[in-house]
């Protein structure tokens, strides 16, 4: 079997609505197979104020993903920092099957 050549740059765009810590959203991105993957989710986010407009955030999203080699339900935890209306989150999803790779994602979010 020939080695898999992964697309390791996976830009995407999403929309997320937040109210009182709860969130609902969707995202589409170019997956590791060079195809468009889509996901819809709900979740909860908690922000711990640090100083001024800086906060540390913990978020859990649960939903359905179609792409990246599978179609299934899943959960995705993330940690991040925010300043004002801009946040940066780090997400990690371990490989579920031997034929898949773990995912480390960086997401930048801007509130309007």
Structure in a nutshell:
It is built from no helices and seven strands. With 112 residues, it is mainly β.
- What summary fits the major beta sheet? 7 strands, antiparallel
Report the strand count. Answer: 7
Straight-line distance between termini: 48 Å
Uncertain stretches: none
Q: Can you give the mean pLDDT?
A: 91
Helix-strand makeup class: mainly beta
So what's the overall shape? elongated
Q: How many helices in DSSP terms?
A: 0
The helix content, as a percent range, equals under 10%
Order of strands across the main sheet: 1-2-3-4-5-6-7
H-E order: EEEEEEE
Strand content: over 45%
As a whole number of angstroms, the C-alpha radius of gyration is: 15 Å
Any chance you could write out the topology, listing elements then pairs?
Elements: E1 12-19, E2 22-30, E3 36-51, E4 54-67, E5 70-83, E6 86-93, E7 103-110
Antiparallel strand pairs: 1-2, 2-3, 3-4, 4-5, 5-6, 6-7
């Amino acid at each position: 079997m020939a080695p898999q050549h992964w697309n390791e740059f996976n830009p995407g765009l999403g929309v997320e609505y937040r109210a009182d810590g709860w969130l609902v959203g969707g995202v589409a991105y170019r997956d590791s197979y060079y195809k468009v993957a889509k996901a819809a989710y709900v979740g909860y986010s908690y922000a711990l104020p640090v100083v001024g407009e800086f906060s540390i955030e913990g978020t859990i999203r649960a939903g359905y993903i179609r792409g990246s080699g599978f179609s299934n339900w899943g959960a995705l935890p993330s940690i991040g920092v925010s300043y004002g209306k801009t946040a940066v989150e780090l997400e990690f999803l371990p490989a579920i099957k031997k034929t898949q790779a773990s995912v480390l994602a960086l997401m930048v979010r801007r509130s309007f």
